[in-house]
Amino acid sequence: MAAETAPKSIVKTFWYNFPACNTDELTFKLEVPVDIPLAGSTRELVQRVIYMFRLPVYVEEELTEKLEKFVAHETMLFHNSRDGKLIDKLKNNEVNVEGIIKNWEKSFKDNVMEFAEQKGTSDEEVFAAAYHKLVHSPALDTILQVENSYAKTVRDTLENREEDIKKLTQQQTEEMENKIKQLNISTTEEDINELAAAHFEQQALVAGRWGSQLDALRQTQRAQHRSWLMSTLEEYQSTSALNTPSNSPLATFSEAGALPPPSAAPPAAAGTRLEESFTIHLGSQLKQTHNIRIVAMDLMELCAVPIIDNPAETSRRLQTALSLYSSELAGLVLLTESPPRRPAPPTTSLVAAATASTEHHFADVELQLKDISEKVHDPVAKRNTERLKEKSEAQGEGAQSQPSCLSRRRQLRDLQPGDMFMTKHSNLADMHIVFHLIVDDSELRSSDITSRHPTILGLRNILKAACSNDVTNLAIPLLLRHEMSEEMTVAWCVRRAELVLKCAKGFMLEAAGAGGAELRTLHFVLPPNTAPQLFATLANLLPAIFRVSNPVKSHKPE
Question: Residue 378 and residue 413: Cα distance in Å, rounded?
Fold first, then answer.
């Protein structure tokens, strides 16, 4: 090949004459072979020549200059000659192009393997692909039964923990009451304080013991579940049949007693749920169809999985499991006043629903909240400091009383109203993603909020994030409140619902124009104790604000 026969270097002779130091009539001639192209430094070669031939130091500068010119000129001639020959061979079809390409390909691969970062498919990606393949196969029912059996074990452990703590609390209460009765008789205040401290230590010890036991149980279930899924997938791919593996949790049941007959349907709730659905069109030229649903319910009903002792019953998590690794995720907007490091209602209710069963795909919700709190600490502190600085400059240093040091530190490090963070879940009833929107409940109780309110702007960011992350089903508190209160009159609710609906419509149009997933279904959730008359009034706002798709009806004269 031409690439192999072309010379990589040649040897040229460098001549240099210099006079003696005491007379110009005596001249010395220096002959040095030089490799072209020169691999090293010209100055280094000059120093080696001077040292080898014991040349006088006064020739160093001139020798360096002439040698650099010689090397540059000969290198240019070498490249021109070599490239000219290669071009001539290419014109005469004497070059093996395929061989050169293979050599370049081999050299590139060797270089990449040597210096590039060795990064392959992670275990999480492998497990996600295996789970997605199996839930869309006949193994779906078995997977849901296994997860239900795991969840039942976790719930039993949680019940035992609550029972243990309840008994300990009752015992401690009785001990404290007996001590108090003996106060100033055989017991002093120091004895009571010591007993209270001992009770606190016992409570902490019991809580820590049960916490460790639950963590170990969840880790064991997580490892067993992954191992079982991978072995099931391997068997499915090799035999195209799905038999229960020997290490399956279902293998411990007998064939007769493993799947008891489905029980009767649960009795209907005492009150019928208020809900109504609409099909709307958004857009002027390219219209998009959306489903809008208004419902009065507790948002936690979309998260908490009902206790099902019979694994043969159809799981409510069927659709959630099927769409877990897909582009049709379900999301929920949860209003909270607490930062992620200090969960408070309703975040605590979400944590309770998420910890009622093992999280097999993502980190536990407590770890997610802790990780979010650590990651947002520095950016939030920097942003809040800049905001406080701008506010103080605009109002003047003495315009308002300065907050206390503790309040100022909290303002600097806490998320502000309008901020939001996300948690991911695979073990909730109907939701994959929860958008936690930070709000100021005292401000939301007022009826004079506008479209520029931080909570409304936070809702806008949530809709944009939903479209950017394949969330096509989103539930939003319509009144920006989870519970009804005294100040929420009919007029208050109508104004708030009208504001939220109009802003949501504009945000949906904006998000659709930016690309991403299409929000196909939007749930506007009202508090569960909403009166039927108020519900009907708010439901009538939807046809007025959105363009509702109604069939054309023709009336024939009688």
Answer: 8
Q: How far apart are CA 188 and CA 379, in angstroms?
A: 52
Task: List the domain range (segments joined by +) for residue 57.
Answer: 2-115
Look at residue 16 and tell me if it is in a domain.
yes
**Alpha-carbon 235 to chain mean position:** 32
User: Do residues 209 and 344 share a domain?
Assistant: no
d(CA 472, CA 278): 16
- pLDDT tens column, 350-375: 999 999 999 999 999 999 999 998 88
Question: Do 326 and 210 belong to one domain?
Answer: no
Report pLDDT digits (tens) over 300-310.
988 888 766 65
**Three-state secondary-structure class, residue 220:** helix
Same domain, 67 and 145: no
423 and 538 co-located in one domain: yes
Q: Which residues contact 532 (CB under 8 A, 6 or more apart)?
A: 274
Q: Residue 19: what pLDDT?
A: 77
CA-CA-CA-CA torsion sign (187, 192, 198, 204): positive
Q: What percent of the chain stands above pLDDT 70? A: 83
Is 255 domain-assigned?
A: no
354 with 484, same domain: the answer is: yes
pLDDT at position 123 is 80
d(CA 396, CA 266): 64
Q: How far apart are CA 460 and CA 437, in angstroms?
A: 11
Helix intervals (H) in 12-59:
42-53
